[in-house]
């Protein structure tokens, strides 16, 4: 049967034809149409297209490694026993990589490769493919050759830490091919007929590491595809899960403590948001270490705003799994609390509110003293948005309930800040919110508020007395110095 099938192909009659690896001649031409690669027996086919195929020498499209299998054949024109060989042949044909910086260079070859990729995607999606080990090896090889590459240095303005959201995303000119390769890889990974035990030999640690390196791509479309593929690999290859977690942790460490430059942190966190929700209880020590050493330090970089939503979700998943982690998380936030960035401080206060909303009384009491010392300093911030966001915490009923049960401890920590605001904060909105918070405390425990108001006034009077004494002493020193001017190197002794 195979000999009969192969006998349909014309023999190469001359040396001039030996370089025609596309397998086309005047008697049996291959043409490319919008619906894929089709065969025609007409000797009067369009000469322009057939000549294009002829010009594709073995230097551009290597011959199939499967002897006698023509890669430009359509799957529907091949009997079932030969489809696997044709699949490998087409995969090898797609191992050729083109330069897309010049759209006019190798235009016909690029179009042929794209049509072949579309045909491969359709064939795998149809469920007809049997993923034997040679097929798995060919798919992984083709994916690696097309996808794994070194990105050029990015000299754009993200040297400031990625705070410039106005930067336009950079799109890869080769995306018309890359998208199809990603689609093929995704359908391959998610196929129910793929045996993970066989595939793990080729989708190995090296393959995963190179896949993770691609998350630094400037093209958001590529990062989105990678996010889906890595998530499916994590779900399918259980043996690789610890390695994936360790490799992603290393990316986070390098980003936080070395470069502060990476384009795919948000996508990686989005994957782990789903992974964390699947952790079994009680949480392993390895998972807690991932929280403390990888996730919490991600609050440190200047560009935290680019991925804070995904980071907050991951931390919320941990707290939902184990509420006892709240105190550790809040201490971590206080450790990395911004000092000079008001924008980051507003974001931290927003995340703190989400965490406190999921905090029980026992855990709240463990961290309320350092927490409200920090909130007290935020209340007196000269940046009105920081002070306003801190005061908004009292709009949350759960947080107000926690504060009310611990008002004896919390009120002394923030009352001086409230009084300072009421005595003359420059922003009217902050002043009004401060008066509302004072009113809430008075409704909780008016006697407590009055007692601390008296203490505050006494302390203010003492401070005023000390300031007056200091002012008088300086005035005396200035008067003495004015009557005894110093000349030359004369030693001066000032007596009280």
TrEMBL record:
Protein location: Cytoplasm
Main localization (coarse): cytoplasm
Keyword list, A-Z: Cytoplasm
Pfam family, one: B56
Low complexity biased stretches: 19-36
GO cellular component, as recorded: cytoplasm; protein phosphatase type 2A complex
Entry GO MF terms: protein phosphatase regulator activity
Regions of compositional bias (Polar residues) in chain numbering: 37-48
Disordered as annotated region, ranges: 1-48
Gene3D superfamilies: Leucine-rich Repeat Variant
Protein's GO biological process: signal transduction
Organism superkingdom: Eukaryota
SUPFAM superfamilies in the record: ARM repeat
Family statement drawn from the similarity comment of this UniProt entry: Belongs to the phosphatase 2A regulatory subunit B56 family.
Function: The B regulatory subunit might modulate substrate selectivity and catalytic activity, and also might direct the localization of the catalytic enzyme to a particular subcellular compartment.
PANTHER family according to UniProt: SERINE/THREONINE PROTEIN PHOSPHATASE 2A PP2A REGULATORY SUBUNIT B, SERINE_THREONINE PROTEIN PHOSPHATASE 2A 57 KDA REGULATORY SUBUNIT B' KAPPA ISOFORM
Protein name: Serine/threonine protein phosphatase 2A regulatory subunit
